[in-house]
Model the fold of this input.
Amino acid sequence: MIEFKNVSLTYPNGHQGLKNINLTINDGEFIVVVGLSGAGKSTLIRSINRLVTPTEGELLVDGEDILKYNERKLRKLRTKAGMIFQNYNLVNRMSVLRNVLAGRLGHTGTIRSMLGMFPQEDVKLALDNLDRVGIMNKAYERADRLSGGQQQRVSIARVVTQKPSVILADEPVASLDPPTSHVVMKDLKRISREDNLTTLVNLHFIDMAQEYADRIIGLRDGEVVFDGPADQVTEKTFEDIYGRPIKEDDLLGGDE
Ligand code: ADP
Done:
């Protein structure tokens, strides 16, 4: 369980990225965080693995306040809360399989991993996870030979190979076309379900949010302005979150 208790974050330049956030996120929930650019979506999810550090309040992950963590505990936290980025963050010149095995780095000893020696069971796990996102046949290709959608599926395989309990996905489909975006979101949702992973995804397209989320959290100027089940969300809800009428650009469109 993840609990935000009166969490605020003021950036060094004085900008308030988060304002008094109170949220409880239950194990296994699939949450989409929506809001205009600059609303604080990225700041909110990056707080959960301390890529950014809130300046006030308590942020409990499984009962422990992660704002008090030292370096050693932070490394553990980042193994438990895996991240998916808009630009995939793969090592281009390495094989797809090596990129997925990078998910084991938090578990494998440093010297072994520097030598690229991974236990056979890790290699099997990595290949199985590539199979789950439908690209096992790409395992020995260089990562940068793959299309954007395939690269994002590699990054999903990498994060689940890490065996996290939480996945944080920061605009995972913002660089992809509509059909590919749906493929990636479907893979992410299915795997999250199958492995009972708590998942937070930042998206700015409202149709995608409604289609994939169990629960939607709406942010505006660093504040939570909506929190509820996705099936209770209407166009009016989004207008309230965005503070303006919905436009065509707010929809991804495309087929599932
Ligand atoms: P979103 O993900 O919703 O686009 P962000 O969480 O990236 O929003 O940013 C929230 C606000 O905080 C924005 O106004 C942004 O400009 C500001 N911000 C983000 N990172 C920093 C930083 N390192 N220093 C100062 N302001 C920042």
